[in-house]
Amino acid sequence: MKRAHLLWAAALLAGLLLPLVAGDSPYLMKVLIIMVIFIIYTHSWNLLTYSGQASLGHAAFFGIGGYASALLASRLELSPFITIFIGAGFAALAGLLVGAICVRLREWFLAMVTFGFSIIIGTIFLNQFTDIFGGVDGIPARRFFSATLEHRYLYEYYFMLLLAIATTLLVYWIMRSRLGVAFAAIRENELEAKVLGVDVVRYKLVAFLISTYIAGLAGALQTHSFAYITPEIYSVHNSFWPVIYAIAGGLATLEGPIVGTVVVTLIWEGLKNLGLSFERFVIIGALLVAMVIFKPRGLASIFDRWR
Amino acid sequence: MPELSIALQVLFWGIYAGCIYMLLATGLTLIFGVMKVVNFAHGEFLMLGCYATFWIVVLLGINPYLAILPAMLILGLLGIAVERLAFRPIMGTGKLNEIFVSLGLIYILQNGVAFLWGDDFRSMHSPYAAKTIPLGGINLPLDYVILVGFTALILIALHLFLKKTRLGRAMRATSQNRKAAQLMGINVERIDMLCFGLGVALAAAAGALWAISGQLFNPYTGSLPAIKAFAIIILGGLGSIPGAIVGGLIYGIAENAGGYLFGNHWKDAISFLILIAVLVVRPHGIFGEGEE
């Protein structure tokens, strides 16, 4: 058994045992639940970047998935356990549209269009169709588990963990498959990939489709966990968090989103307990700059010599 | 004719907004031209320009218009420091890293200011705040007229600097061909640094004028104008200063006309629709030449 396998096993065990740390504290359980949701969300952003497309507006897909799932659950009286997967489909549709627009664009151009798209979507959800989207107040969303159920946070946590593990396995499989090889080829040199016969447009769209589906799923998970959704979900923070997590952990790696989300969440919550507010953002920003300059391959690269 | 006066009003407000965008976009395009770096945190320097002007006026009690140049100087020095500390180490390591470093800078600058001076909206008053100039049936606020004049002055000065001075020529040379410029004995890293400082100073001028004309500002004021400035330099062609000026003007007018026609909350969304349309139809901008 390789050491890398041991690390993954240890991570899995830690994930399973983590609720013990939280004990009876609902606050800590909520933090853990959001952390796991953001591991899924960061995986989604990271996978898109793996194909050479860095989005700065992933909040759009996060939010569309959330709204779609909340609406399906309340209007059609479906269980949230089903609607999260359908709602994510709406995010993937939007992702396909944006992907098609962006197919010729790279780097800053892509970043700008995705960023702009999330602003436009945010404006629409805030100002238009207020009878459907509820305007600034948003809409309520059904909970996964009844609020009166004992240990409901615990169930919720393990449900999220299950999906996070599934997402990790999916990303692992993609990175290992033909698809992943094509993504990496496009990322490293689009022209060369094209010359070698990779259908660049198709693979870029596939990357968008998968990534935005997962982002929508994560958004739906957060929505039903919070039991409400407002246009706040389209805030730039929700677009930037996965970027920060993935870079802190290790860009375009499988373990990056997990390591980054956990470590940065720890720092973030730790600083919160110290009573800091704006300083937290300054520290996170400084961390981001320092990571890019001094440790461009992320915190996960610490484990490299274990391989 | 009320329609005409409304049209004139919208046009003038567009020109006013366009002036701010022009200065911001010119700085951004200058930095891009020389360093081939897009600084997403450019708007944060506009915001810092607002605060620098505000504090100079509050502490020294001078006429706000006299605070513009000192504010530009302070921010220019800060820009040089930022270039040395944050951008120089990652030059040539990939475009994504530049995006990520700017993202970090946005967090640092916005929240650093919020930490120091709070995140409430502030505003300042110009001594000419109540004065207006009648023109074609509408009353133009005197401050806005001065602001347009100031912008023209700064842009002319920039033009002369780039065309007539040795340093300006070196900047243009570096922008055209970095390697050749290096072979001609130009210290391109020094040019990068000065150019970044100059670009930031222009953003500071935009911020100073923004604050003096009575607009509210807080630590998050810079983000949207920065994105728009980015859209403008794409519209005008990356690295092209005339493009940034014309683009800024078009953008300011289009945005205000759009805001008037569809309601103000659509202003920002309209700007992005323009950007996306331009990117899809003409990825190299209206004035830009094809590359890649």
What do these coordinates show?
Chain A has a single domain, classed as ABC transporter involved in vitamin B12 uptake, BtuC. Helices cover 74% and strands 1% of the residues of chain A. Chain A contains 13 helices and 2 strands; from the N terminus they run H-H-H-H-H-H-E-H-H-H-H-E-H-H-H. Chain A is globular. Chain B has one domain (2-118, 139-281): Orthogonal Bundle (ABC transporter involved in vitamin B12 uptake, BtuC). Chain B is 73% helix and 3% strand. A two-stranded antiparallel ribbon of chain B has the order 1-2. In chain B, helix 1 runs antiparallel to helix 10 (241-262), helix 5 crosses helix 6 and helix 9 packs across helix 10 (241-262). In chain B, 50% of the residues are buried. The interface between A and B is large, with 42 and 43 residues.
Structural class of chain A: mainly alpha
Structural category of chain B is: mainly alpha
Q: Strand-and-helix sequence of chain B, N→C?
A: HHHHEEHHHHHHH
The outline of chain A comes out as globular
Total domain modules of chain A: 1
> What Rg of chain B do the Cα atoms give?
19 Å
What percentage of amino acids of chain B are in beta strands? under 5%
**What topology, given as strand order, has the largest sheet of chain B?**
1-2
CATH fold field value of chain B: ABC transporter involved in vitamin B12 uptake, BtuC
Strand order of the biggest β-sheet of chain A: 1-2
* Quaternary structure: heterodimer
Secondary structure layout plus pairing:
The complex is a heterodimer of chains A (307) and B (292).
Chain A (H helix, E strand, L loop, with lengths): L2 H20 L3 H25 L8 H17 L4 H23 L4 H21 L2 H4 L5 E2 L11 H25 L1 H11 L1 H6 L4 H27 L1 E2 L6 H14 L6 H18 L4 H17 L13
Antiparallel strand pairs in A: 1-2
Chain B lengths: L1 H34 L6 H19 L7 H20 L7 H23 L14 E4 L2 E4 H23 L1 H11 L1 H6 L4 H25 L10 H14 L4 H22 L4 H15 L11
Antiparallel strand pairs in B: 1-2
